[in-house]
Amino acid sequence: MKRRQFIRNTGIAGGMIITSPLLAKSFDPDQYDFKLVDMHVHTTPRFSIDQILEVGKQKNIQFGIVEHPGRDIVDDASLLKYIDNLRQYPVYVGLQPTTPGWSKSFSKEALAKLDYVLMDPQTFEAGNSYGDPMRIWSFDTYVDDTEKFMEAYMEHTMKILESSEPLNIFGWPLFLPVCIARDYYELWTEERMQKIISAAKRRNIAFEINDLAHTPHERFINMAKEQGLKFTFGSDTRNEKTGRLDYCKQIAKKCNLKEDDFYRPERGID
Known about the structure:
The protein is α/β, with parallel strands linked by helices. It has helices at about 5-10, 15-20, 50-60, 75-85, 110, 145-160, 185, 190-205, 220-225, 245-255; strands at about 35-40, 60-65, 90-95, 115-120, 125, 135, 170, 205-210, 230-235. The chain has one domain (about 5-15, about 30-260): TIM Barrel (Alpha-Beta Barrel).
């Protein structure tokens, strides 16, 4: 089962869903100082680019489309076909790899034709004492040693952020498996958050504010903002819920984010 199905079925995505006071508040859509761009949207045979654009017209939202390499996007030819198919539409064209080493399948010239690359740390090896691969969005993820998990999770996160592979947006920052989400604020220490921010700053990587996971929280956003980092919004959707950015807008307003605080790919789509 894919991450979106687990989260949709359980209604829980991470520590912020449990603890955030923002969830109980309404939001006035006219009270923000930035244009709405959802940079984390997927197409499917049942939810086409035309349907996505119709949602955009209704909600006055622009979109960035991402797909995972590895199934239909496996080499330069298939990557360029994917990019060319989307270029006829007013959207940003991105890629969302899931594991380090992904770029070996593509040339630098082909990757340069993308508008952006978004990657998150949700899948990694040896996340528990048994050395099993972990897919931490899964509701039944088991963490038997919390500190060991956090050490492995931080190591994996640093591997992504410090890699030489293309990366513009770090997705799902500070997400935790449901089984340890109650300790969210204790586990995400200032030291750990600063380590992530410093690594992103060295490569000028933006942080995604993820509406599905309700991460990251206010403290992290303010720390990153103070150090000059940029942000993006992401619904991480592939259905009619595309463009639902309630948490994103609320936390951005709370942190006083302005248009200049957001990462926008160089290619305009207006």
